[in-house]
Amino acid sequence: MIQAYIGLGSNLENPIAQLDRAIETLKKHDSLYAFRVSSIYGSKPVGPQDQPDYINAVASFKTKLPPIALLDLLQSIEQKQRRIRERHWGPRTLDLDLLLYGSEEIQHPRLTVPHPYMLERGFVMCPLNDLAPDRLLANGKTVAEQLHQLDTNDLVFIKEV
């Protein structure tokens, strides 16, 4: 079994409901075990600012799925929820990103793990800190240490899941 962490985000079509529905779908999947989810946070968008604020969370679970099969599962959930993604770093109904897959480093045309931008994003590191503050990252720091170095002034606690 591999411990995996995924980021969840939305800023269109009732974002909290989008995350809640994705979380329920993931919880019920028969290949994901010991499912946990962080609190939900709000933040300003990365990239174009002419879009609504985002809500984000991180989920963790154990799985036997290989990384590409897990990516396929995440993308199928996005599609079932009729994912809208208008432009790069633009608004979206649902975004599910594989952040960490055990301690593996993956370079594949469809997938890079650890997620290439996670270390610089408070909206990822803060909810990840809810679940695994002592987890050692590829840069040699713990999640808590990395979070401490980030500006998280725009993060707003939304709710516990």
Automatic annotation (TrEMBL):
General function of this protein: Catalyzes the transfer of pyrophosphate from adenosine triphosphate (ATP) to 6-hydroxymethyl-7,8-dihydropterin, an enzymatic step in folate biosynthesis pathway.
Recorded family membership: Belongs to the HPPK family.
Stated name of the protein: 2-amino-4-hydroxy-6-hydroxymethyldihydropteridine pyrophosphokinase
Sequence intervals crossing the membrane: none
Nucleotide-binding keyword on record: yes
Organism: Marinomonas ushuaiensis DSM 15871
Gene Ontology biological process terms from the UniProt entry: folic acid biosynthetic process; tetrahydrofolate biosynthetic process
Pathway in which the depicted protein is active: Cofactor biosynthesis; tetrahydrofolate biosynthesis; 2-amino-4-hydroxy-6-hydroxymethyl-7,8-dihydropteridine diphosphate from 7,8-dihydroneopterin triphosphate: step 4/4
Sequence ranges assigned to domain 7,8-dihydro-6-hydroxymethylpterin-pyrophosphokinase in this UniProt record: 88-99
Keywords attached to this entry: ATP-binding, Folate biosynthesis, Kinase, Nucleotide-binding, Transferase
Source taxon at top rank: Bacteria
Family matches, as Pfam families: HPPK
Lineage of the organism: Bacteria, Pseudomonadati, Pseudomonadota, Gammaproteobacteria, Oceanospirillales
GO molecular function: 2-amino-4-hydroxy-6-hydroxymethyldihydropteridine diphosphokinase activity; ATP binding; kinase activity
Documented EC number(s): 2.7.6.3
